[in-house]
Amino acid sequence: MTKTAFFDLDYTLLNISSGLTYVKESFKQGRAPLWVIGYIALSYQFRWLDFGQAHGRLITYVARHGRAEVSRFFDELVTNRILPHLTPAGRAKIEWHTGQGHRVVIISASIEELVKPVAQALGLGGDYLCTHLSVKDGSYTGELDGPLCYGPGKIHWAKEWATRNGLDFPETVGYFYTDSSSDLPLLEMADHPIAVNPSRKLAKIARARGWPIERFY
Q1: Strand-pair partners of 195
Q2: Which of 34, 60, 106, 174 could pair with 128 as two cysteines, CB 3.0-4.6 Å apart?
C-alpha cells in the first residue's frame, strides 16, 4: 500500500507564515489599504469572519484588476519572499520520503496561489492541498471554492485527494508533519504523527502522547 507523507506549510516546511507575508506585501505594494487590512484582521480576531472569509475579503482588493493581472504579483511574492524561507531540514525530509517511495503532499490552510508554486518548486507537481478561492469570469468572487483547508477541513481534502488517486483513506496517511494543534484531527489519523516546531499546545500534547518532536531550521 502506498504511504503518504503530509506536510503542513507555514512554520513547518517554511520558517515563516506565507499568509502573513502575503498580507504585508499586499499593503507594501498598495494593493490593500491599511484600513482594509486592519478591519479584516479585527473581524477575524473577533470571529466575525473565519479564516477563509478573511482571505476571500482580502483578495477582492488585492486582485481588483482581475486574476490575470494579479498572477504576476503572486509569482514574484512566492519567488522572492516565500521560497527563500523553505527550511533545509524540511527539504531533506521530503527527499528522504521520496527515496522511501512515499507520496509527499503539502496540506495547508493557505490559498492555492501561495501553495501551488511551492509544491512545484519542490518537485511535487499537483500533490498539494489547500484553500481555494472562487473565480468567476476571470475575477475572484470573494468566496471559497470548497471547504477551508483547516482543522477538520484538512481531512476533507486529504480524503478527496486519496480517492482521486485511487488510495485508501485513512490507511494512506502514513506521516503528518505540522506545528499546530489545529491539525489534531488529521494528526490522530496518521501512523506517524510528528510535531515540527510545535506551538506550546501541540508540544504539550505530543509529549503526553509520545509523538516525536522535530525542529526544522
Answers
A1: 178, 213
A2: 106
* Kind and range of the H or E run holding 213: strand 213-214
How far, in Å, are 1, 53, 120, 172, 177 from residue 27 at the CA level?
Answer: 47, 18, 26, 41, 31
Chain center to CA of 92: 19
Average pLDDT of adjacent 10-residue blocks, the chain of 217 residues: 93 96 94 92 85 91 94 97 98 98 97 97 97 94 95 97 96 97 97 98 98 97
Query: What is the pTM for the complete model shown?
Result: 0.95
- By the 8 A CB rule, do 25 and 77 touch? yes
Beta strand pairing status for 139-144 and 133-136?
Answer: antiparallel
Tell me the HSE value of 112 on the side-chain side, using a 13 A CA sphere.
Answer: 19
- The CATH number of residue 107's host domain is 3.40.50.1000
User: Catalytic residue positions?
Assistant: 8, 10
Domain that holds residue 69: 4-214
Question: In whole angstroms, how far apart are CA 141 and each of 72, 120, 215?
Answer: 19, 26, 39
